[in-house]
Amino acid sequence: MDILEAAAKRNSVRNYIDKAIDPEAESALRAEIEQCNSESGLNIRLVTDDPRAFKGLMAHYGKFSGVKNYIVMAGARDDVKDEKIGYYGERIVLKAQTLSLNTCWVAATFSKRTVRRMLDRGEKLVCVIALGYGETQGRRHVSKPIEAFYSDSCRREASCSGLPEWFKNGVKAAALAPTAVNQQKFEFGISADGRVTARSLGGFYSKVDLGIVRYHFEIGAGIENFEWAEML
């Protein structure tokens, strides 16, 4: 399974079976996290066989069960940007999917106090990602029409068949991305100099969402085909 196939198959999963992560899968995932930390300057951590963060009322409210493994999305307070958290977190999520692991982004319904005790002084916790083998593979949420994610100028181009195929493929991949409460509040455009723009339309954890959909756009469009108007 390649990354684009993983994006198409991956769904959020909240309920997990009691099964340890395969050692080879864990090793591959840790290598991906290490690479992401090296590139981003973040301090992302994989925590295994520790149910404490998903015990109590918050996890119950979020309808989570069986969560013993999770990824801590954090880094030095001065360096952490929510968009960067989303981008590199989703890169790890899709890597996990290729390793037959299920995931779910979790912003609030976990014990932040428990996880913050793991952080170094001066670090900021943004969210965690639940990880493991799901009771099911989850279910796909209904997406908005692809055209809903085009900027106004791109909608005019689309009506005249003027958008490049790689751009449309990028938006299709972005439409598969998980967003907070399935809000899908983002749009893509092409600037006058030919570079791609990605814009949040607001909402809960919108900057994290923007990083997630940017990564999806890249794998759909092919990073070799374009440049971003603004880098992370």
Task: Provide structural commentary.
The chain is of the alpha+beta class and 232 residues long. Helices cover 37% and strands 16% of the residues. The chain contains eight helices and six strands. The strands form two sheets. It has a four-stranded antiparallel β-sheet. Strands 5-6 form a two-stranded antiparallel ribbon. α1 (3-9) packs across α4 (82-98) and α4 packs across α8. The longest helix has 18 residues, at 23-40. The two termini are 27 Å apart.
Instruction: Tell me the number of helical segments per DSSP (H or I, 4 or more residues long).
Output: 8
Rounded Rg: 18 Å
Low-confidence stretches: none
> Sheet bearing the most strands, described?
4 strands, antiparallel
Name the shape in a single word. globular
